[in-house]
Description:
Layout: E1 2-6, E2 16-22, E3 29-30, E4 35-40, E5 45-49, E6 54-59, E7 66-68, E8 72-77, H1 80-88, H2 90-108, H3 118-123, H4 134-143, H5 161-183, H6 198-213, E9 216-224, H7 226-243, H8 250-263, E10 270-272, E11 275-277, E12 284-286, E13 288-290, E14 293-295, E15 298-299, H9 307-323, E16 336-340, E17 359-363, E18 367-373, E19 376-390, H10 396-411, H11 414-418
Parallel strand pairs: 12-16, 16-17
Antiparallel strand pairs: 1-8, 2-4, 2-7, 3-6, 4-5, 6-8, 9-19, 10-11, 12-15, 13-14, 17-19, 18-19
Amino acid sequence: MATDVQVPTLGESITEATLGQWLKQPGDVVKADEPIASLETDKVAVEVPSPISGVLTEQLFEEGAVVAVGAAIARVDGDEAAAKRSTTTSQPAVAEKDKTAVAKAEATGDVAPAGPTPAQERDGSHNQALTLSPAVRRLVLEYGLDPSAIKGTGKDGRLTKDDVIAAAKTQDKAAAPADASAAAPVNQRREERVRMTRLRQTIASRLKEAQNTAAILTTFNDVDMTAVIEARAKYKDLFEKKHGIRLGFMGFFVKAAVLALRDVPGVNGSIEGDEIVYRDYADISVAVSAPQGLVVPVVRNADSLSFAEIEKTIADFGKRAKDGTLKIDEMKGGTFTISNGGVFGSLLSTPIINPPQSAVLGMHRIEERPVVRDGQIVVRPMMYLALSYDHRLIDGREAVTFLVRIKEAIEDPTRLLIDL
């Protein structure tokens, strides 16, 4: 009996998705809860599991189709006998196909019939094709080889499958240079059209919406990373031994952002209609790279988390972003965003805010630069910081004050411990 495979509930306000990829094909045996397809939503990729064990009998949509929540996209036959048949019928089908091909070849004279002629028996010149097994004969036909030109290594000089495969490889190598020169036209120009993923379409739409709606302005500062680098080098081994996670730079910046948000609450607010919403908690969205694009999972209640809890949360987000297993609810409701373009080598950028948030902090690469300290030119590991903000809500004075608070906390991490 066939059972429909339906698009699962994808989250609040999400009513449809794009069928990204079929993970199973008709005729494949599937187990209950085994993924058979991948869906692309506005935010994440979601795998669709089979509701029962059986055989996938039908795909109702092609890859790239838009499917609604609750729609049937495939059918699975739960009959155990059907599952067993699918695993046992493939070899007989191939064997029957081989027999048909060999019979056709013999009828058309492509391969000599199974028995030698009297003349061949007398002079011993009968072709090696006379002793070809069905499997070897099939390979000879597939590769288009002359069996008489192949030296057999089997009993009585018979051809084996390995002999045919080796001869085919030799023939391919000999033909490769000529084929390459013939198939590579001079000054070849190519174009490729690839359909935008649903996630990429959503990213494009939201970024353009932010530019059209908010009055975005960016202010910059630079920060001396010496103190943080020294603290990390001094405690990273003990930190990893105790907490089982590496001590990174992002934990320092999340903690610094929490302090700055307390001092400048407008940066943590948002505009809703003709009202301003202020928050006494900090849900920090951390931008991470995924195969489908940039995603921003949220570190909930970052203001009450320890360094270790922040680092563990971010590391988990990064891993699951690559695996495509982030949940939709984990990317909703952030109040402020931190994006680290420095991991890709970015020196400076003007990040775009993530609506309905009002600000985003951009981190960049650490670079040794000459700076003046106490009247002396010295080399320090410096990082540019960028704060993009909605000028409708946040004044320039508040934005600069916020960025200075970040700078002070990073250059003197003791402030993070005594809440200054």
